[in-house]
Amino acid sequence: MHQHRQEEGRTTTTGTTGTLQRIFDYSARADPYPLYAELRKTPVARQEDGSYVISTYREITDILNDPHLSSDLRNLSRPLPSAEEGATSSFIHMDPPEHDRLRRMAMRHFGPPHTPGLVTGLEGFLTATVGSLIDNLAGKEQIDVVDDFAFPLPVTVICHLLGVPREDEPRFHLWVNDIMNSIDYNPETDPKEKLDKGVQARKDLRQCLGELVEQRHGRPGDGLLSRLANDDGPDGRMADAEIVATARLLLIAGHETIVNLITNGMLTLLRHPQVPQRLRDEPDLVVPLVEELLRYEPSVHIIPWRPAYSDITVADIVIPKGSRIMLMLASGNRDPDRFHDPDRFDPDRRDNQHLGFGSGIHLCFGGPLARRETQIALTELVRRLDRPRLVADPPPYRPSPVLRGPIHLDIKQGDG
Fold first, then answer.
1. CB-neighbour burial class of residue 165 (10 A; exposed 0-12, middle 13-18, buried 19+)
2. What's the pLDDT tens digit per position in 192-241?
């Protein structure tokens, strides 16, 4: 293997395959950051299979804002199979102008300028839901932050946001659980039932959401499903299948982001014991603290594929049309050319334009809600848990190198 450069417009072969394989290996899950530092030595690296890995902040940001970068699987020269055959794609897998139309329609009901009070209007519900979950932890000598808190919280919040009836909510918790388990499916070690349950859960979720949307027609209400089903804005009205796809995006992508953010956040705070005490004394610290968590321990480490619409030049490297591009977001977040002392957790960090929610036209549209949910969750956990301490460090991690977070985070509290 050897390093490569582009010389006089020609792209030669590459040499970071070994490092990438080690990042994907489970043994690196607890601390992939030294391997990201190796990757950054070659900011744009062509792999043996013809794909490209981009690992530095400037290059990631440039290409995420490049109109020649696609999010549509069909633009790959060797298309990948869709996870949900026959289902309408969400706008996260679309390009302009269709992406822009659907995102505008969703954002009319999800934030400024048309719905500026959405997140602040959820403040009371978020606080009450967090408080109720923490109430259930009182008196327990040992808790699992994932199972007991971080996993159930976002499903409850997103169901409330969508306007899912309370009696249907337990089914949504089960479906999201089965879908999340199937994302990590390994055919070599896992029973096929794990995959089958995920496939069935996706079908059941689509069907239930479709029925709920159908019931909302002609019945305007506060939930997002009702608003989308009855809105005739400048772009017209979303088709029912598009509403279902948008709701699924919120449930699945939103859930995964928040579970990992809260769990990684709690782990980081317990590794830096002076910070929880500061947070108790200075509640406003939680705002920059969560931004630093999004940089230091983000929920999404890798965007595993984006196609090139046409030839794209990044850092003097020509990436041919149809190539698969892998973006190492977490590596960009630790790039010393962009962030001072990047391997240090610093909640007072200034100019923290991290890649925790991506960049460009696909910047996470649920970001404001994820931020506030995490801010309230970490503030209340720190305030109300009784002398929490880690049972195991590092904790066991999920198999995925893409959506990286502990599968369990066991904490002891009290005198036990």
1. exposed
2. 888 899 999 999 999 999 999 999 998 888 889 999 999 888 898 999 99
The encoded tokens of residue 141 equal: 């000598």
72-95 pLDDT, tens per residue?
A: 988 998 876 665 556 788 999 999
Residue 46 parent element (H or E) = strand 44-46
Asked whether 233 and 105 are in contact (CB, 8 A), the reply is yes
Single out the residue of 285, 289, 288, 300 nearest to residue 355, CA to CA.
Answer: 300
Question: Phi/psi of residue 389, each to 5°?
Answer: -150, 150
pTM: 0.91
pLDDT at residue 14 is higher than 70: no
For the chain, what is the largest distance between any 2 Cα atoms, rounded to a whole number of angstroms? 68
* Residue 60: alpha-carbon gap to chain centroid: 17
- Please name the amino acid found at residue 400: S
For residue 201, the one-letter residue type is A
Query: Helices (H) and strands (E) in the chain — how many of each?
Result: 16, 11
Q: Which of 321, 304, 317, 382 is nearest to 75 (CA)?
A: 321
pLDDT over 70 for what percent of the chain? 94
Q: What is the DSSP string of 72-141?
A: -GGGSSSPPPPSSTTSPPPGGG--TTHHHHHHHHHHTTTSTTTSTTHHHHTHHHHHHHHHHHHHTTTT-S
Structural tokens at position 240: 């029912």
| Cβ atoms of residues 90 and 97 within 8 Å | no
Neighbouring-strand partners of residue 410: 144
Question: In this structure, are residues 178 and 197 in contact, taking their beta carbons and an 8 Å threshold?
Answer: yes
Q: Are 259 and 154 in contact (CB under 8 A)?
A: yes
The kind and range of the H/E element at 142 are strand 142-144
Residue 315 zone, left/alpha/beta (φ > 0; ψ -120 to 50; rest): left
- Mean pLDDT over the full length of the chain: 90
CA pair distance 243, 224, nearest whole angstrom: 9
**Which position has the token pair 């327990």?**
140
Q: What gap in Å lies between CA 4 and CA 104, rounded to an integer?
A: 41
Neighbour tally for 113: CB within 10 Å = 7
Which pair of structure tokens corresponds to residue 390?
């880690």
Q: Nearest to residue 36, comparing CAs of 19, 21, 50, 48?
A: 19
CA distance 347 to 349: 6
With H, G, I as helix, E, B as strand and everything else as coil, classify residue 283. helix
